[in-house]
Amino acid sequence: MFQTFTESTNPLDGPPRLEALRAELKDADLDGFLIPRADAHQGEYVAEHDARLAWLTGFTGSAGFCITLHDRAGVFVDGRYRVQVKAQVALDQFTPVNWPEVKPWDWLIKALPNGGRIGFDPWLHTVSEIAEYREGLKNSGIDLLASANPVDQVWPDQPPAPSGKITAYPLEYAGENSGDKRARIAKILTDAGHRAAVLTLPDSICWLLNIRGSDIERNPVAHAFAILLDNGRVQLFTDPQKLTDLAPAPDIDVLNWGAFQDALGALAGPVRLDKASAPIRISDVLTKAGVKIAYADDPCILPKARKNATEIAGTVEAHLRDGAAMVEFLCWLDSAKQKPGLTEIDIVKKLEGIRRATNLLLDISFETICGSGPNGALPHYRVSDASNRTLQNGDLIVIDSGGQYIDGTTDITRTICVGTPGADERAAFTRVLQGMIAVSRARWPRGLAGRDLDPLARYHLWTAGQDFDHGTGHGVGTYLCVHEGPQRIARSGTVPLEPGMILSNEPGYYREGAFGIRTENLCVVQDAPDLAGADARDMLSFMTITFVPIARNLIDTAMLAPAERNWLNAYHAEVIDKISPRLSDGARDWLGQAGAAI
Fold first, then answer.
1. CA distances, 131 to each of 53, 202, 227, 280, 400 (Å)
2. CA dihedral 222, 224, 229, 231 (to 10 degrees)
3. From the CB of residue 563, how many other CB atoms can be counted at a distance below 10 Å?
4. Which of 37-46, 130-139, 277-286 has the lowest average pLDDT?
5. Which of 55, 156, 246, 288 is most buried as measured by Cβ atoms within 10 A of its Cβ?
6. What is the dihedral angle through the alpha carbons of 442, 447, 450, 456, rounded to the nearest 10 degrees?
């Protein structure tokens, strides 16, 4: 799954906003300002209150930033968003910049050869990020200055900060009570000689305290900061009104946001702080108070990623439930796509309706991506009234969707064809499928990371001179965020994969202006079954937990090796076995044909 977008220009009259921002910068004696996508919690998804980048520029991608100067404004995006940004920003006011090929400090040095003063909001940038900027700007005459956020000052109707209710997450789904988790993480602190840890990531806090929230749409997390002491006691900083329906444990102190900075200054060090995710403002407060900082990873990150047996069992059940809903949907779509007039919006509404008919869906896990024809070539596409297409004969449809259930979070992509696919489409689809199968079948020595597996997904595409500009897989939470770190299958995936980690497996291919392809299953890292032989090494493998058929009419079977064909037939047999008992009669019959051996 990937963050989506509506293909339209900014409806919010961006240029006057840009001029208002520049006037504010002039009053503050600043030559420019950094405007990130992030909020104070560095989440991929932000509340409307924190959507400053989108408000100013119109760009709604999940990654990117703007640097606004008095005579230019660059919107920095990576390869996933270079089509999207051109569709969303006013190109006479904002200039798309290819990032990370162009480093922001190099861009600044070129734009301000005589130096200057660049402001940034210290709550919206991490310690690592600002350190990297300062290193890049060394000896340039350009100074980075912490500042009040001028975007907030010129945004008259800025939505209020979210204040959704916080609820308890039942032990029957968490598999471990909060007290035991806190004791376990506190031991990590004491073993390292740390007296406390500052937690800023909402999903880490929710996991640690066995709570869930509703501050971010589609992600059941609560905005909060927390301080975990080495005795397991926690100070939770948020709006106490969020907890009116929940009685915290005696060793959890709930305090107002305003108490956070004073609490930081009162800590005894060393205090553990994750410089990759903590706002630099926290580091500055601790330093000013003379509190020693120990920079290290958020101590909840890896324990949260290693799902326990209860979480895995719940996630497996959620995927079976969701798989049955997907099969009911695909059965409907197989007939509906033959009728004239069906649109992308029709498909999105039908799929969500079928999921909700389970009466167990709490929310979709992200805005459904349904891109037909050329819209499918935009990996982050989100249909709008303006972009909505009527299906046409020969279209490929990329449908990427998921559900939030109390026992698990799902994410699945299937590519479907309307009518008869062309030879190019079938060849590309098969190469993508071969990559997905290669990752699914992989066995690897314990200790390898996602970057070591990523080439498996791309090999067949590379042989044809093709590739895709996103990672092969991301981590997934259990009734938490559909994108979860630190594990990922990508060139940047440096964290070793460990048993219990849930990841997506989703290679793709996109031909701009023509079609897109993506096939995605979720899988769990497990100990590999024993291999014969005295010299067999300690290996890991994946257990696939998504059970939905793959469109056989898009497969060029002549391209498949015998092992690939065997894997696909065995997968479809397992889909039929696990999903058929959960289906209506019509969908069961359809699945029997869709999953027939090739």
1. 22, 24, 24, 9, 37
2. -30
3. 11
4. 37-46
5. 55
6. -30
